[in-house]
Amino acid sequence: MQERIKIFVDCHIFDKSFEGTRTYITGLYKELIKDNSKEFFFAAKNTTILKETFGNNENVKYLKLRSDNKFYRLLIDIPKLIKENNIDYAHFQYIVPPIRYCKYINTIHDLIFLEYPQYFPWLYRVKNKFLFNNSAKRSDIILTVSEYSKKQIQERFNIDAIAITPNAVDVAFFENYNKEVIKIKVKKRYNIDNYFIYVSRWELRKNHHFLLEVFIDNNYYKDFFLVLAGKRDLSNNKFNMLYNSLSNSIREKIIILNEVNFDELQLLIRGATLSIYPSIAEGFGIPPLEAAAAGIPSIYANTTAMKDFQFLKNCQFDPFNKADLHQKIELKLTEEEINCSELIKEKYNWKKSAFCFLQELNKH
Predict the structure, then answer these.
(1) What is the pLDDT of residue 15?
(2) Domain extents for the chain?
(3) Which alpha helices (H) appear in the chain, and where do they start and end?
(4) In 3-state terms, what secondary structure has residue 26?
(5) Rounded (10°) angle between helices 179-190 and 262-271
(6) pTM of the prediction?
(7) Do domains 5-168+349-363 and 171-345 have the same CATH topology?
(8) Are the beta carbons of 357 and 165 closer than 8 angstroms?
(9) Residue 180 CB contacts under 8 Å (≥ 6 apart), including other chains
């Protein structure tokens, strides 16, 4: 009997708040663990979350990280676990350990901080440029999530061999639902109806202030609420100044939700009149696809990786042009929506991403 290939996965992100890299690991490996010719070792400090995510498959093991400290994790903890378990491949996001006891797989999701330096602190840019570049050079397999990010890595780090394992839309967004029932649930839970939604954590490049300006300038608050769902990682002073200048009656139409779990997020997306995604720069940009998969009219910025979503017709706008966004909102509020769910399901699914992953693994 042939020995199983052993794959270690650094899941320390599961010990923190929910973000894109966690979604990527979850979706990709839920598909990959179906392959019994491989044994998977998921490592985090909180292994309970990992067990809840990946289950009790016979070919899945859970390893406990000892510390939250990233230096201890990369220099001592993970190399020790790799050596003890005779791992063949270890999969990391962005940064790999300096000590090697197996082959390294590295997913670099984007290099937005180099393409748009004005949105990131100087120290963050200098530190991560060195760490990401150094890690890429020491990785056996380099993956990314979009054609845009692939080109950025090739140009910035002078590396040609990069495979794309795209992000995918969770199957839950494709499920059928009753819109009226959803609207009643949203009304009961949040006391809102007829709303635009923007799903994103808060950073300056996410452009929340731009969306608020368009919402106010065009008096949308008279007929709609604006729901902003996402963790407030960084403050946006432009947004805060405008928001604080508004009357209480207008501010009541702007709903800011800092922590939203998956079920609540799905409910809010399904109940929305329109999904708007004005982010200036993304390595992928999954929320516009999630909304469209759920049958919600979805418009998004025409920049970076989101340029690839051109199959969603009449949905792109210039994230620096308020008139363009206003025009697209009016268009989406009046035109009959074309259902793109099947197209999205075919193009962005974890089975396809897992196949691309295994193809690359077989080359090494």
Answers:
(1) 87
(2) 5-168+349-363, 171-345
(3) 20-32, 47-54, 70-72, 78-84, 112-115, 122-137, 147-157, 179-190, 208-217, 237-245, 248-251, 262-271, 287-293, 322-334, 341-347, 350-362
(4) helix
(5) 120
(6) 0.90
(7) yes
(8) yes
(9) none
Handedness of CA 7, 10, 14, 18 (dihedral sign): negative
The CATH code of the domain at 171-345 is 3.40.50.2000
| Look-up of token digits 């440029």 | 129
Residue type, 84: E
Query: How long a stretch of residues is the chain?
Result: 364
pLDDT tens digit sequence for 149-206? 999 999 999 999 999 999 999 999 999 999 999 999 999 999 999 999 999 989 999 9
Architecture, CATH, for domain 5-168+349-363: 3-Layer(aba) Sandwich (3.40)
Structure tokens belonging to residue 70: 């990233």
Quick: pLDDT tens for 212-249. Answer: 999 999 999 999 999 999 988 777 899 999 999 999 99
Nearest Cα to Cα of residue 167 among 17, 69, 31: 31
